[in-house]
TrEMBL record:
This is peptidylprolyl isomerase. Signal peptide: none annotated. Residues 209-313 form the PPIase FKBP-type domain. Its EC number is 5.2.1.8. The keyword Iron-sulfur does not apply. Gene3D superfamilies: 3.10.50.40. It comes from Pedobacter fastidiosus. It catalyses: [protein]-peptidylproline (omega=180) = [protein]-peptidylproline (omega=0). It is an enzyme of class 5 (isomerase). InterPro entries: PPIase_dom_sf, PPIase_FKBP_dom. The keyword Cell membrane does not apply. Belongs to the FKBP-type PPIase family. Keywords: Isomerase, Rotamase.
């Protein structure tokens, strides 16, 4: 895995600008880094891959839009008919299982045929994709669509179960590594929450029925490929922009949240401080998204939150609260 990340990162950090790229269909150019010589991907196949999508911006240099390594979740890609000459389907057809390559695709064409707007502030008219083909499920000639659909479901379920098992087995090690790498002197609660109180705040404590005003940043324990913290949600606009998850529709200020509707780990962390308090919590999955995950969060994924409690609005003691869920909700791009 680490070797794959190094290869892909090297490609995105400058190899895409070299003169060794070959001309493909339409406006596509490409460079193949590794070829295993296996059967090439064809229309109808189903592909598991890891990849990084980068655009070059006018103001901030390279901007990573997608990185499956950061989320520790590979993509599954059905190979349909090409939408235009030199699209991603045409690019992937140059590869087989185990191969890796970088492609530059035309952004105007991608926007026209996908219905998604072109990213704002791009320096040129190309997106760079660096991919590693992990596995290919080939559709056999004259195979019934229903038969292949069943194979695809079984293939995906098998791969997803393997991901879950891997995450479950590695969760404790991820927590320990994060604490060690950041030289944290945490306290462990009886529930398994690890925390560091940075400021205690006042003596007031929030009850489950209260609405708390919190500033927070949620991140994964692993760093991103560029070495930055791996943020998935935040109430801070600067942090959101730096993490590449800024949304003009989001509220970047202290957010009002009914405490009893949050995850057990988040609830416990907030109740350890008063107004004006700050705390860092490391939440094991059993106190967060659990064995099912949610949004960009995989099953059995530990999370880290930096929380500042700005205020408490008292609620009614008779208010009927739903079962706790993980909130605040993860940001999506």
């Amino acid at each position: 895995m680490k070797r794959g990340i190094i290869i892909l990162a090297a490609a995105t950090l400058g190899l895409a600008a070299c003169n060794k790229f070959e001309k493909g269909e339409g406006d596509m150019t490409y460079k193949i880094y590794k070829s295993e010589g296996k059967a090439k991907i064809q229309e109808g196949d189903f592909v598991k891959l890891n990849g990084i999508q980068v655009i070059e911006t006018k103001s901030n240099g390279d901007s990573t839009l997608v990185n499956t390594y950061d989320n520790e979740r590979p993509a599954f890609f059905p190979i349909s008919k090409s939408m235009f000459k030199g699209d991603m389907v045409a690019a992937l057809k140059l590869l087989g299982e185990g191969d890796s390559a970088t492609f530059k695709l035309n952004l105007d064409s991608m926007a026209k045929y996908s219905g998604q707007p072109k990213p704002v502030g791009t320096k040129d008219n190309y997106a760079t994709f660096t991919v590693k083909i992990e596995k290919v499920l080939h559709k056999i000639a004259n195979e019934a669509d229903s038969t292949f659909e069943k194979k695809k479901r079984e293939f995906f379920e098998t791969e997803y179960k393997a991901l879950i098992a891997k995450n479950k087995a590695s969760e404790d090690a991820k927590i320990k590594k994060y604490i060690a790498d950041n030289s944290l002197k945490t306290t462990a609660s009886a529930s398994g929450l690890q925390y560091v109180i940075e400021a205690a705040g006042n003596s007031e404590r929030a009850a489950l029925t209260d609405t708390v005003m919190v500033d927070y940043t949620g991140q994964f324990t692993n760093k991103k490929g560029d070495g930055k913290i791996n943020v998935f949600d935040t109430s801070n606009s600067k942090t959101a922009k730096e993490a590449g998850i800024f949304s003009p529709m989001a509220q970047y200020a202290a957010r009002p949240l009914v405490l009893g509707q949050l995850a057990p780990g988040f609830i416990e962390g907030v109740q350890l401080i008063g107004v004006g308090g700050k705390i860092k919590i490391v939440i094991p999955s059993k106190l967060g998204y659990g064995e099912n995950g949610g949004g960009p969060i995989n099953p059995f994924t530990p999370l880290v939150f930096d929380i500042e409690l700005k205020g408490i609005k008292k609620g009614s003691a008779v208010t009927q609260l739903p079962p706790p869920t993980m909130a605040p909700a993860p940001a999506t791009k």
